[in-house]
Design a protein that fits this description.
By secondary structure, the chain is α+β, with helices and mostly antiparallel strands. Helix content is 34%, strand content 26%. It contains six helices and five strands, in the order E-H-H-H-E-E-H-E-H-E-H. A hairpin with a 2-residue loop joins strand 2 and strand 3. The termini are far apart.
């Protein structure tokens, strides 16, 4: 499968939100509408202004078929190493199980190595056992227990 990876631009925002809402968990938490709620535009602008964050699209021709966000964090731990965090990993529902997700992971690994990160981390929702198996198949190991506090 011939995918092209590129950074997202503002006109891509509706397609990104559509991908975020394209499953049973995401459709309850996202508000995809035309026009999009302003909160998405504001978040997009803040991410675009952050030199340590990138919104990456996987495209087949003009069609956006996958997406992830990668953020680089300079840490004191690991001898002052750079850490990469991959979030919001999505593949279009009608394109799943075709190798796109694996290519998304490979591209994120490549970006992380280019930034000299010592690790690439992500979290996955416990209600997504298939996603966990996918990540493990692609080299991730569940080494920590994540925790959140809703504010």
């Amino acid at each position: 499968m011939n995918l092209v990876f590129r950074e997202a631009t503002q006109p891509d925002l509706p397609a990104i939100v559509r991908l975020l809402a394209d499953d049973e968990i995401g459709c309850r938490r996202e508000a995809y509408a035309d026009p999009l709620p302003e909160c998405y535009q504001a978040a997009f602008e803040r991410i675009q202004a952050d030199a340590n964050s990138r919104l990456i699209l996987a495209c087949m021709g003009e069609e956006i078929v996958g997406f992830f966000q990668i953020t680089f964090t300079q840490c004191l731990s690991h001898r002052g190493a750079m850490r990469a965090t991959m979030e919001n990993v999505r593949v279009a529902g009608d394109k799943r199980n075709q190798g796109i997700g694996t290519q998304l992971i490979r591209h994120a690994v490549s970006l992380a190595r280019k930034e000299e990160a010592v690790l690439l981390q992500l979290m996955t929702d416990k209600r997504r056992p298939d996603a966990r198996r996918f990540y493990e198949k692609n080299g991730f190991t569940a080494t920590h227990e994540g925790m959140k506090q809703v504010l």
